[in-house]
Amino acid sequence: MATQEFDLDAFVHAVEQRDAGGQLGAYADQAQVLIVDATAPPSSPRTFDGLEAIGRWVGDVAARDMTHRVNWAAKEGDRVAFVEDCEYPGGEKVLCMTTMDIVDGRIVRQLVSQAWDS
User: Fold this and answer.
1) Does domain 8-116 have CATH number 3.10.450.50?
2) Within a 10 A sphere around the Cβ of 25, how many other Cβ atoms?
3) Cβ neighbours around 87 below 10 Å, total
4) 72 touches 82 (CB < 8 A)
5) How far is Cα 115 from Cα 101, in angstroms, rounded to an integer?
6) How far apart are CA 118 and CA 115, in angstroms?
7) What is the pTM of this model?
8) Would you list the domain boundaries of the chain?
9) pLDDT-flagged residues of the chain (< 70)
């Protein structure tokens, strides 16, 4: 049986188009997302376990009135990384750096580090 490949181009397109369903379809059922930022330090990251929790997070981000632009992305074997610039209509910016572990073409673990204008 052939191993399914992760479609990085499709995932980037879903992120940039704020397509929550397209993004969620890339995650494995038991995936985990960890987020480190000003409100969730490395010793206590915000954690989303499983598709239901990840779906709530992705849905919240996709519903926000902001632009998303992936300005760099790479895939090597079972690892993916990308840098994303976001901007709210008022000009406030968010920078997000992500690494993902891929198994059988699906995201099983994602680590997000983000910072935003105050």
Assistant:
1) yes
2) 14
3) 14
4) yes
5) 22
6) 9
7) 0.94
8) 8-116
9) 1-2
Give DSSP secondary structure letters for the chain.
-PPPPP-HHHHHHHHHTT-HHHHHTTEEEEEEEEEEBTTB-TTS-EEEEHHHHHHHHHHHHHHSS-EEEEEEEEEETTEEEEEEEEE-TTS-EEEEEEEEEEETTEEEEEEEEEEE--
Residues forming a β-bridge with 47: 34
Going edge to edge, which strands form the sheet with 67-76?
46-49, 27-36, 106-116, 93-103, 79-87, 67-76
Taking CA atoms, 20 is separated from 47, 76, 88, in Å, by: 18, 24, 18
Strand partners, 81: 74, 99
Q: Tokens representing 50?
A: 């499983």
In the block, which residue shows the tokens 């993902």? 100
